[in-house]
């Protein structure tokens, strides 16, 4: 599942940046997520992750000094607040917040896909018409 890979890459990237003492800005996160997933990571992907986990993924607009031009440029400060998830007490003993984050994400993504089956049918129809979907099942 591509969205789960993006979430894993985002979480890993933010952790690595924090260990290196760097700010988790979108311009720092994006190349790392792309390297981890072998896919392009855009603001649209980040927005989709935020839609599924709005209380966990925190995004703030910031101005960052560009070293080449000495000008301020807009960027996004991205953090993951695992503590925002409501846990049932046994989440800490089962692997901590990161494991609970992934389980919650998969559950919510499944709920969204079940509540909007017509979107999946339209998507399947578009792929079949384009000839890019053969015997695959969505």
UniProtKB/TrEMBL annotation:
Record domain CDT1 Geminin-binding: where: 4-129
Listed InterPro entries: Cdt1 (IPR045173), CDT1_Gemini-bd-like (IPR014939), WH_DNA-bd_sf (IPR036390)
GO cellular component terms attached to this protein's record: nucleus
SUPFAM superfamilies to which the protein is assigned, alphabetical: Winged helix' DNA-binding domain
Coiled-coil boundaries: none
Pfam family, one: CDT1
Molecular function per GO: DNA binding; DNA polymerase binding
GO terms (BP aspect): DNA replication checkpoint signaling; DNA replication preinitiation complex assembly; mitotic cell cycle; regulation of DNA-templated DNA replication initiation
PANTHER family xref list: DNA REPLICATION FACTOR CDT1
Protein known as: CDT1 Geminin-binding domain-containing protein
